[in-house]
User: Which sequence fits this backbone?
């Protein structure tokens, strides 16, 4: 049995065993898992190694790139601003970002950015990978271009662009970058070890993600919008090896944390706005998460998806409950929150699987946690 470090309530021993089994079977090389229940941390564990060579153990404060799980942090910033009356999800984006009106986008509302329905899932103009570190270029290009489909009619997963779109709205309102605002208003008050834009001082703690086998998107039968979205610039799992990636603020894809920090922050959702005695959002401010914005075949993912205000909601494919929401990251990380049971479950790992839709490792952790509270 793989060694698991950390602490857990014996009621949740099945969660720990699930992680251990995955490490034993080679499904994971290094990973961390955290569960909050009724506002308390009941699982905080980690195991395995920081790299494929198994040169050093995954430790208590090891960090890794969680990819699109980062989106939940960016979304939380907007929920807080809306709760404070500084942002209205139903107002046009141009109310905060006037230049966005170019290309016939004057009717796109903030809620369309939140739900991947803005028709801006990628860049029309060519963008090199390193260009993702140029905030002004990325946002000005999005402001200038026309939507790829009629906004509001369907979701098309804004895999990387959502962070720039929402992040620029946050910047226009607050006067600071979304990464800076998140650090000051979210991570700081909660004491959470999560970064959007990683300081050089934290590099030594990072487990660089282990890429999945390369995928030739041109050889796959992908929806046309998937090809356009994922090929400009190409989604490359080796990007976190580069310093430019870690230092940049890419608020849809380059957040650094571990299961403990992700679960602590997102337990705000399960706790209806409060976590560990700190309230950052009102209960009403959390309710908007469950206002359905889209439900149907996603034009990029090529599978059914249902989005609320920033988070994925329950579907037949992902039956998580009427007051539950989730999202995950490229390669497998997962965060799930359920208000009915006040349960938050997070899985963060370094060994990536192929695909944007996640895999069974995180799902098995979530199922084990759900079984623990039903027993």
Assistant:
């Amino acid at each position: 049995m793989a060694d698991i470090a950390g602490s857990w309530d014996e009621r949740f021993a099945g969660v720990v065993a699930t992680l251990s089994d995955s490490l034993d079977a080679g499904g994971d090389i290094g990973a961390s898992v955290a569960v909050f229940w009724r506002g308390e941390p009941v699982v905080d564990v980690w195991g395995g190694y920081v790299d494929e060579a198994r040169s050093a153990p995954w430790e208590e404060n090891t960090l890794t790139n969680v990819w699109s799980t980062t989106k939940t942090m960016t979304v939380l910033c907007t929920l807080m601003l809306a709760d404070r009356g500084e942002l209205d999800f139903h107002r046009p984006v141009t109310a905060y970002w006037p230049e966005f009106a170019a290309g016939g986008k004057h009717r796109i509302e903030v809620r369309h950015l939140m739900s991947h329905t803005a028709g801006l899932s990628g860049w029309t103009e060519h963008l090199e990978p390193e260009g993702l570190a140029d905030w002004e270029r990325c946002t000005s290009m999005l402001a200038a271009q026309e939507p790829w489909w009629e906004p509001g009619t369907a979701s098309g997963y804004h895999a990387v662009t959502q962070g720039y779109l929402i992040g620029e709205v946050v910047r226009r309102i607050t006067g600071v970058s979304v990464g800076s605002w998140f650090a000051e208003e979210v991570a700081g008050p909660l004491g959470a070890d999560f970064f959007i834009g990683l300081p050089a001082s934290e590099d030594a703690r990072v487990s660089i993600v282990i890429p999945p086998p390369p995928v030739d998107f041109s050889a796959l039968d992908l929806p046309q919008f998937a090809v356009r979205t994922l090929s400009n610039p190409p989604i490359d799992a080796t990007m976190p090896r580069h310093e430019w990636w870690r230092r940049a603020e890419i608020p849809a894809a380059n957040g650094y944390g571990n299961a403990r920090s992700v679960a602590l922050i997102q337990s705000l959702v399960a706790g209806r706005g409060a976590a560990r005695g700190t309230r950052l959002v009102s209960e009403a401010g959390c309710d908007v998460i469950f206002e359905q914005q889209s439900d149907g075949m996603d034009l990029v993912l090529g599978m059914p998806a249902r989005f609320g205000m920033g988070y994925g909601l329950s579907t037949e494919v992902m039956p998580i409950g009427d007051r539950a929401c989730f999202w995950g990251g490229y390669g497998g990380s997962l965060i799930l929150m359920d208000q009915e049971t006040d349960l938050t479950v997070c899985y963060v790992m370094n060994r990536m699987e192929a695909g944007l839709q996640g895999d069974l490792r995180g799902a098995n952790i979530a199922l084990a946690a759900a079984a623990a509270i039903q027993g």
Remarks:
- The CA atoms of residues 210 and 351 lie 5 Å apart.
- The chain has one domain: 4-374.
- The mean pLDDT is 96.
- The domain at 4-374 is CATH 3.40.710.10 (Beta-lactamase).
